[in-house]
Amino acid sequence: MGLAFKLAAAAAVAYLGVVRATDGGKNAAPEDCCAALASAFGGRLFAPNSTQYDASIESYFTLQERLTPTCVVGPESAQDVAKIVRLLAKKSCLFAVRGGGHSLIPGAANIEDGVTIDLSAMNRVSLSKDRKTASIGPGCRWGDVYSTLSPQGVAVTGGRAATVGVSGLILGGGNSFFAARRGFACDNVKNFELVLGSGEIIDVNAQTHPDLFRCLKGGSGNFGIVTRFDLFAFEQGDIWGGTVAYAQSTGEQHLRGFYEFTKNIRKDPYASLINIWSYAAAGDAQTIVNAFEYTKAEAYPPPFESLVKIKPQLGSSMRITNLTDITTELESPTGLRNSFHTLTFKNDLDVLKGVNKIVQDALAEARRDPKFISWAYGYQPLPRVFTERSLENGGNILGLEDEKDDNVLFLWFLAWDDPAQDGPLAALAKAVTGAINEYTKKQKAYVQFEYLPYADAEGNPLRKYGSNNLRKMRRVSREYDPDQVFQKLVPGGFKLATAGDA
């Protein structure tokens, strides 16, 4: 039961190609870039085969992201980051930026034959004296945040798995246990400390740079390197949560229960649900798992009544606990090859059944000769109330404000260990997600939105934020990064420059 959930929880993306620092001679040789950094940073510059270099590379969540940069530099302050960016921009060096290292896309937070800026040492979490603001370093993971704040009776709107990085989640939007109450994680940022492509350090908030502030809330790493997140904090005690595993035969009851939960979430915004269908090739077994979280210390509250009554149950970890404990449980195994695939559609019971049949039919074919270790997919509520809370906080760049319906966020998570299966599994995923999108369009249930932390390497979430938002992000990028450092010198991740026509 624990493994079933672990194989389906978490955040970020794909496997299709490796970002390599090669550009036809327009940029400095990476060896020269590393030599210049060594002169400036000495003991914070790590070369291949050093203990620090190996530790950095091995700490990435997925094997595909464990690339081999020419060197890794580990800044300890915003001033260090600014100095590094100025040096790399002046010499025209290609580089990557790593926060928590949880992305599944090769090159999103690492690089082949270039410089990787590893922000792991910038991992401080502090709470203001009035207990209303938590300042969080870009190298933190959510487990670091909750283990610091929970003992103080305080929380922030953040991630649901402990090893997911703070930076990637917030800059990609950030789903949360608190979304129905407080919006996405990005909506709960009070201030970003940001290093621009020029090396200037600025505070970005609703008063100082309102357009840039909005673009950072979902626009990923296109505008600079965030060196501190100041999040709104709030009083928070223990919560009720955990996972319950069920037999596959109960599937239709879960789809109905999920539909009803999503439709009614605004009636009790303390409730959060993830419904997972997990298949493990070893043992040829499929299990359905519900992850229930209620952000009060109240067991078995009414929103989950129909789902917790489903029988037979194979196991349960439900308890009253804290955020640190619950996000540690909602973890995925590391050290495998992984991919996320995501799409969005309207919350409709018949559509849920149709989507589920497409995935189950594909699994029935694939399990005859499985090329993977696990195949887990699931449904997460994406109701209108999330966006209403976002708008109350000033809005973001995700493009959901025009969605008036309650929607469903679909995530498919594959894990395997044979590099030879990278291509075949990518083709399989493309075929299945393509079939789902075609089906939802025919049912008039298709929703354009693509959640960036779950998007695969062929995804285009920035474009799917809508043409007006894409144009706005590009305008803001040109204003604050006139030399386009973060479009031209940082090749990984989802880029405004390659998002297509607005």
In short:
The chain has 502 residues and is an alpha+beta fold. 31% of the residues lie in helices and 22% in strands.
* Number of E strands: 20
Task: Tally the helices.
Answer: 16
Shape: globular
What proportion of the residues is helical, as a percent range?
25-40%
Radius of gyration: 22 Å
Strand content: 15-25%
Distance between the termini: 44 Å
The low-confidence parts are 1-24
Describe the biggest sheet? 9 strands, antiparallel
What structural class is derived from the secondary structure elements?
alpha+beta
Give the rounded overall mean pLDDT: 94
Keywords:
16 helices, disordered N terminus, nine-stranded antiparallel sheet, 502 residues, alpha+beta, 22% strand
How would you explain this protein's 3D organization?
The chain is built from 16 helices and 20 strands. Strands 12, 13, 14, 15, 16, 17, 18, 19 and 20 form a 9-stranded antiparallel beta sheet that branches. It has a 5-stranded antiparallel beta sheet with strand order 5-6-10-8-9. The chain has 502 residues and is of the alpha+beta class. It has helices at 2-6, 30-41, 51-58, 78-91, 142-149, 166-171, 179-182, 210-216, 251-264, 305-308, 323-329, 349-366, 384-392, 422-442, 467-480, 485-488; strands spanning 45-46, 71-73, 95-98, 115-118, 125-127, 133-136, 154-155, 189-195, 201-204, 225-232, 234-235, 239-247, 271-280, 285-294, 313-316, 319-321, 337-346, 374-382, 407-416, 446-447.
